[in-house]
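Morning - nicotinamide-adenine-dinucleotide inputs below, output right after.
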Amino acid sequence: MISSSGRRRAAVVGTGAIVGGGHLPALRAHADRVELVAAVDVDPGRLDAFRAEAGEGVAGFSSTEAMLDAARPDLVLIGTPPSLHREQTVAALKAGAWVLCEKPLCLSLAEYDEIAAAEAASGACATVVFQHRYGSGAVRARKLIRGGELGAPLVAHCQTTWHRDAGYYSVPWRGRWATEGGGPTMGHGIHQYDLLLHLLGEWEEVQAMAARLVHDTESEDVSTALVRFGNGALATVVNSVLSPHEVSRVRVDCADATVEVTHLYGHVNDDWVYTPAPHVAEERVAAWREAGEDVPSSHTAQLGFVLDAWDAGVRPPGSGREARNTLEFAAALYKAAFTGRAVRAGEIGPGDSFYAAMHGGSGTTWTGKGRA
Ligand SMILES: NC(=O)c1ccc[n+]([C@@H]2O[C@H](COP(=O)([O-])OP(=O)(O)OC[C@H]3O[C@@H](n4cnc5c(N)ncnc54)[C@H](O)[C@@H]3O)[C@@H](O)[C@H]2O)c1
């Protein structure tokens, strides 16, 4: 339903840091196409503060169900702790609303398949927030790589080396299997390896190690992986919250050029660097470097893609198979780290213990060095 003002009606669920800092600016930037009509939070203080910031006309609710019944939104933006994402996404889909949910979309492949079933029953779509796919630098790099302009992809590095302290992990839902789903593999590095998969296409096989070296968490605080892609390219992935010099980085070496992006929490065109191989003519290089419009990676950029897809009557990018693919990569990384053997795409299905939970049923604390 589109309101009498011609705009789609949106609601936010959760009014904490990312909704205030990412989703609200995105809704404001697209105010000509979407109108925020409702907000939900179980914390009345946060809800009041958010509504004071968001402006008049945003109705407040303490439960998602009550909000869905009363406000009947077209689009629900979810920014609650990860363990709530599945049930809130399914509830919104059942009410006929599209969903744009924070990462991780849910905690396991089993949960994802429940969301997919709710999508199929309702005809609405659930998209996961991976804002780094949607900046203009990433859009251009993907077009060049997937279009073969840079030659065959051969070697890639994907680095999330961030730093989080004990205060960060004192928030009860963080670092626990039941509430965050895992450590930096699920919560932090997922942005960068989602971008890697988006740039390089289908992954085929993962080998991995993980450890809990510093924090008082159940899950890992560092993980590393080796990946083979369907096109033959090999990649390394690092997901760390132990790294004083914080960097987010993806580098892809193709036969004719290296393309790399180095940033922290968001990229712009200038963060993308193209280095040609010696045999490449200057005219080709000039074309790669023609940046065009500079759209920073952000919730604003992603919301624009979602609204465009809706208007065009097509599934939004970052939903369906694409969303599942990144979650399956996380499950494969954990399975490889826990079992010490390579995991192939497609092998984790119902009946596999890593289908139901990223810890594969152990649910225990990583024992420092080595495996749980
Ligand atoms: N895309 C990004 O770059 C990015 C960055 C930070 C966080 N995140 C993700 O956003 C999510 C939230 O993180 P945050 O840092 O904003 O957390 P936060 O704790 O600041 O906010 C969560 C909010 O949800 C509310 N809440 C809890 N239970 C609720 C319920 N049942 N119904 C409604 N509201 C409820 C809390 O009261 C709180 O206000 C997480 O999934 C996190 O991984 C994404």
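Note: Residues 13-18, 40-43, 46, 64, 79-82, 84, 102-103, 129, 131, 187 surround nicotinamide-adenine-dinucleotide (CB under 6 Å).

O.
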